[in-house]
Structure prediction request, 211 residues.
Amino acid sequence: MNIILLGYPGAGKGTQAEILVKEYDFEHISTGDMIRKEIALATPLGKAVEKGISQGNLVRDEQIIKLVEQVLKRGRQSHIFDGFPRTIPQAESLRISLSVLRQKIDYVLFLELSKEEVIKRLTSRRVCSKCGAIFNIYDKSFTGSCSCGGNLITRSDDTLESAKHRLEVFEKQTRPLVDYYESSIGVKRLDASKEAREVHNEILRAIGLKK
Ligand code: ADP
Ligand code: ZN
Prediction:
């Protein structure tokens, strides 16, 4: 089964993908995580995109598509696409790659959240520099540290300025994907303002894994 998670940055795509991967046999494809790894390792790609990302701009389609192709080559049957596709050319490329593998997109889920809530979540988000776990400083369970012992950091693109810009980028480049999928597979909308566990249950119902 292949699922695409759409939604504003900060809507909870990464958090939900992590929960699903723990419970079911999905390969998590987060292009954001892949790109951050390239940056951390200071690869040629990482160095080329570092500045643009911290400003909230997208990475070029060809560069992103190449990264995704490498994961699809592993031949897994179930994937969760988190942060990909983000543009129409990326969606077209994914459609073709999956058809070569005799696979298809089964569900497109849109995690809905207001812009105000997004800005609040992004600027209060912290991530573990070692294992990538996602936290929020307003969570009751927030302790300021990760169970793996890694340091919590603020992503360079989670500043107020960059977060606002990412919302504009979403409207221009990613919003058209909603119509694109609406007219083919269909898009299921979920209320992402709820607590993570509740959103998870809604996702399970939407993809037929729970009544
Ligand atoms: P968020 O969903 O919180 O914005 P991600 O971790 O998905 O964060 O992405 C962070 C950044 O990585 C994006 O702002 C963009 O610069 C780059 N990126 C990730 N996925 C893509 C993609 N599919 N196409 C282009 N750029 C991408
Ligand atoms: Zn950690």
Remarks:
- The chain has a mean pLDDT of 95.
- The chain is about 45% helix and 15% strand.
- Residues 2-113+174-206 form a domain with the Rossmann fold fold (CATH 3.40.50.300).
- The radius of gyration is 16 Å.
